[in-house]
Amino acid sequence: MDAPKLQPFLKRSPGSKSVLAGAPVDFDFLATLRHATSIRVAIAFGHMTGWQRIETAVLHSAARDIFILLGQAFFQTEPELLALLLARKRDSASLRIHVKLASSASTFHPKVWIIENRRAEHTHVIVGSANLSNGGLESNIECSAYLDSPGVATGMRDWFDALWDASPALTRERFEAYREGYESTLQLRKQLRASVDAAALDLEHLEQSWRREEAIKEAKRYFLSPKGIAAAKRRVSAMKAIRKCLKPRSFDFGQPEWNQFLEIHEFGSMKRIRRDTAERLPAIRRAFVHLADASIPLVQRVDDVIRRDGRFHVYGMGRNIVTKVLAMLEPQERPVYNEAVGEALKSFGYRIDQRKSPGEQYEDYCREMTDFVLACGRKEMLSIDAFFEYYFHGKIKKIADR
To answer: Would you say the pTM of this structure is higher than 0.70?
Structure first.
């Protein structure tokens, strides 16, 4: 068996920040749940978002008994999840779900999974920082360790069973008392969270400033390197090829030119763009002519094409293609936005306001990149994409090599 590496907690979430250390390379958490004959879970708090990630695997599990012990400290476990688990306990004949709130004698803070497969005579133990939430399983920075020593498994089962026995049954009366406490403190907890977020904002601004300085330093080094010089030249050549295919500003291109355009991947791969978009070429050409109309504000042009309710929206036309066209039309002012750019920006502390429209977001991005390009000593926007792709793929490689 191959040597274990860090892998996503949920195997089919390659961009996950929640990782699992020490598991075999073929270990699949959800598949392991499905094949389990017994499951014990001790988690500090549970949210519906976490349960929804594992529900199908658990409900189709081979397990006869599933024991879920959740914390009640600070009212972080959602009553909605408790109610659902209690309903599942009543409704299922072949699968018995047992749920309890841990004893309040001490703060309950573990994140432990004990998953047995008696037919395979194997027990998987996972201990880490991930709670039963979407953040814990995927979007937060979390790290858990996989253990499969028989001695460890026995000790963890004994530890869990002692905690289970020390926790009172989750009766309807106890559930209602917890729910009332959760709801009565909800507003206070929201106010406290707002105060904490406000206090943390100054620290975040300081970190963002540091990250931006680091990004500029790294970009300067990259563009002085042979790799950076060559990549910048390829971007200039690629944009010439795009112009040849799309024929601005008339955009009088046909299907052969459109297909050639979709094969140009320097500013973000278009492999996921459906080839049947060629059937909509008249609408696509009208959308591109609209993007080229500088008499219309940039925000409106972008929203008209990207938003599903936009006047010039065409199915399959997203931010990547739209910003490529804008960069082709105004290379000194309009940068391309793609997946690599987005991920690199997040790493460097640049934030995109998700409350804004696509056009407003792109206008903010153009403003940020104008400053970034000047700070890097570049004269045009096109080569910046080369740096972001270099950084993004280098980051992915580091994760894969762990």
So the answer is: no
